[in-house]
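quick one, 313 residues, struct below
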Amino acid sequence: MIGNRSKLNSGINRRRFIGGLAGVAAAPAVLTGAEARTRIADGIASGDVTANSAVIWGRSNKSAKMLVEWSTTPTFDKAQRVAGPLVTARSGYTGQTILTGLPPGQEIFYRVRFGDASGTETRLGHLRTPGENRDITFVFGGDQCGAGWGINPDWGGLKMFETMRQTNPDFLIHLGDRIYSDSVILERASTPGGGSWKNITTPAKSSVAESVDEYRGNYSYNFLDKHYRKFCEQIPALTTWDDHEVTNDWWPDRKLSRRVMFRKGYIQTNVNSLARNGRQAFFEFTPMQRDLRDPNRLFRKVSSRFTELSKPQ
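---
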């Protein structure tokens, strides 16, 4: 535990050091041609699919207009184009576009890009809308990259997502803990058998998450895995959250132990502040329809609307 405490304390020092640089002027960065080009960061995904609608998600590397095209054929015959939001730093460069008027019981192919400039990167995605004469299949699960077990390329990465993708489900029900914002991911971890587990590491996973950017970095970490990226492109998700999207075993207004939180590496011990930042990042990185009257509400009903499709006998 002493070694872990030392590592976590270094995360505190890092955060304080970065905070101390806030007033220091930095030389402007020189962007190369590749860096200046608008491209898709992390990946694309879809969610909350109904018989005639779906939410499409994507993340850009800079401010740009999100554009989505969809068709019922992979060649994009008679494709329909939908203009999405302008993504900026305020949303972590993430954006979501709701497709409506989709035909029920159809394969839907979509492509996402940010901006119309020549050379702008495009990513392709796929989903299926439910129909009244077809069975629905789905997979479900939760708990990604928890307890210090991150993406290990030597082991093959997050292979379970490829296993699930190959079953060709209509959607994934993700039951939460998509991130473990309260756990760091070190370069190596010891396996129960005495072996060594090698993780991909990032600055955002070198300390517990407290700021919105640090929570965002936890979601971005998952997209470093090729299996997860491919799964998100091809299989929609119905997603909720659990405790680790904020911190372990929390609830609104809970009084967090300063001793325990400091040992883990936290500076902030106000759980409502952590929840506010964690919720923002969750909404930014989750393709889902939000309630217009109560946009911070997490629960919702996603209906296949079969009753509307059924014809009178």
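The first strand starts at residue 40 and ends at 47.
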